[in-house]
Specification:
Length: 520
């Protein structure tokens, strides 16, 4: 559960391994040259497996940390993480995705790739040392207890190594070595889990636990870094020309990140200034579940991005429309039962994960899950905006939402606390999802056929009706029953067609009757 800065793609944690635009692999870093399709499938599969394993480890870490730290201690941990992410977002500024893109543009030219990777790594070291070192010093002047102020210094290492790790991850993505990224992430999570188990056994408090988080981040970075050195150079290279090119091309994404994260992370920060740390802890536990749940859409959208970008480049509007419509319906097939299940079982789930003292987080999660569903939908649109090269046109949306949401945080959180923070999060995600979707459909001419989504929502509602009487049973029972009921209903209603099953088991959707939209 290493908390890290944020990537260009909205809310995706920077340490995650969702794919960015892909390039063909080099022989120097692969045993054999794979086809793009095969490489894409293998890398996506590795990421899903790796992310599933690391997510389970992350849930175990959350369970141990919340029980060890309690509401107040976990609240201080959440505050330290949210505070540092404000500095980390300026540090990112869109460089991560741009490094991958530039490496792909010079694929096969090892000298040029080394020049880009080494210059980017040098720039990241300098900027990280400056920006992240300022953060804990400024934190000394905030109205927080000394234990929290010390936590700012303890968590520094986690963010510093995560920022460097992103350049190494970019190199691995360029060469389609995501198995190494996934392995490094799992290794870091295992180090974290082992450390938290020791902390539990020795009854350690906040500062040692935060230091363990930083140690786990270092373990993740070192393993990935030494692996990536086989494919690129990370020597010191203060190359002004490369730096200027990176910054000139990345600034629209960077500005989007800044305003995007103002509304995405300011809630916890404002909450920590005006409400007790115990309340921050309750909110932070539910918010951590949100961050876990939104992993799926970013993995899916990362795979989708090069496909829709190619369709757009070829001016194939019908194919682009088919991909987008299918993606919206796919996200709804996952989001609808998730929302229904959380609305019924949130309190039991939070009690199981975080302990009895965090039962109140269940009511917050019931609100935040609406934001999760909107993120599922909006993530597809935000990636489509990138494929359409329309990031600058999304800036007014991000800026407007950031201003209104921040004003709402300042106006309502002091009085209504975490309830206001949760509902304003839903509001901001709704605005961004609507804005990105409207822009996507307008610029691309794509059309969304929502019949599968409507069937998914109705099936999820029926599922919730069935499991509601079982809400007080052991949580595994309503979950299993709900999965069976929902699966039966989406097949019975035709939300997932026989063609879809054939696509999954055999040939791809794009070849079934010449269509790419089996979700009807």
């Amino acid at each position: 559960m290493t908390h890290q800065p944020i990537s260009p793609f909205a809310h995706q944690p920077i340490g995650s391994s969702a794919p960015l635009p892909l390039a063909f692999p080099q022989k120097t870093c692969q045993n054999a040259v794979m086809s793009l399709t095969r490489a894409l499938a293998q890398n996506t599969g590795v990421q899903i497996i790796g992310k599933t394993i690391s997510t389970f480890i992350g849930v175990a870490v959350v369970a141990l940390m919340t029980r060890q730290l309690g509401q107040e201690g976990f609240g201080m941990y959440s505050t330290a993480n949210a505070y540092f992410q404000f500095f980390a977002l300026f540090l990112d500024f869109g460089l991560n995705v741009m490094v991958v893109q530039m490496l792909g543009e010079h694929a096969g030219n090892r000298q040029e790739e080394d020049r880009i990777s080494s210059a980017a790594f040098t720039l990241r070291i300098i900027s990280a040392l400056v920006l992240l070192t300022v953060a804990p010093v400024l934190g000394l002047f905030l109205p927080y207890p000394w234990e929290l102020k010390l936590a700012f210094f303890a968590i520094w290492g986690s963010f510093f190594t995560a920022s460097l790790n992103q350049i190494a991850i970019g190199v691995q993505q360029r060469h389609m070595r995501m198995h190494m990224v996934a392995g490094s992430e799992i290794f870091g999570r295992l180090v974290l889990l082992a450390g938290i188990l020791v902390a539990r056994a020795l009854n350690w408090g906040l500062i040692p636990i935060v230091l363990i988080v930083s140690l786990a981040g270092l373990a993740n970075f070192l393993l990935n870094f030494f692996s990536a050195r086989k494919c690129a150079s990370f020597r010191w290279n203060a190359n002004w020309n490369v730096w200027k090119t990176l910054l000139r091309r990345s600034w629209p994404i960077g500005v989007s990140i800044v305003f995007n994260l103002v509304y995405f992370k300011a809630d916890t920060f404002v909450l920590s200034l005006v409400r007790p740390q115990t309340e921050v802890g309750i909110y932070g536990a539910a918010y951590r579940v949100l961050e876990i749940l939104i992993t799926l859409p970013f993995m899916y959208a990362g795979v989708l991005l090069p496909l829709i970008a190619k369709a757009r480049t070829e001016k194939n509007t019908e194919r682009f429309s088919s991909f987008i419509s299918n993606a919206y319906n796919t996200m709804m097939l996952f989001a609808a039962p998730m929302v229904a299940g959380v609305l019924v079982l949130a309190t039991q789930g939070m009690t199981l994960v975080a302990g009895e003292s965090f039962a109140a987080s269940g009511n917050i999660l019931r609100i935040l899950v609406l934001a999760v569903a909107l993120i599922f939908f909006g993530t597809i649109s935000s990636h489509a905006v990138i494929a359409l090269d329309a990031q600058k046109k999304m800036l007014p949306v991000y800026i407007t939402v950031a201003i209104f949401t921040l004003a709402g945080y300042l106006a309502f959180i002091p009085k209504y606390g975490m309830l206001a923070a949760a509902w304003l999060t839903v509001f901001s995600e709704l605005c961004v999802a609507v804005g990105a979707t409207a822009l996507t459909l307008k610029l691309s001419g794509a059309r969304w056929r929502p019949s599968a989504s409507i069937k998914a929502v109705l099936s999820a509602f029926a599922m919730a009706t069935v499991i509601f009487p079982l809400r007080n049973a052991p949580i595994a029972i309503p979950i299993i029953v709900g999965m069976i009921v929902y699966a039966a209903l989406i097949f019975a209603t035709g939300a997932i067609s026989k063609a879809t099953i054939r696509d999954v088991l055999g040939k791809p959707a794009a070849t079934v009757n010449g269509r790419t939209h089996p979700l009807d």
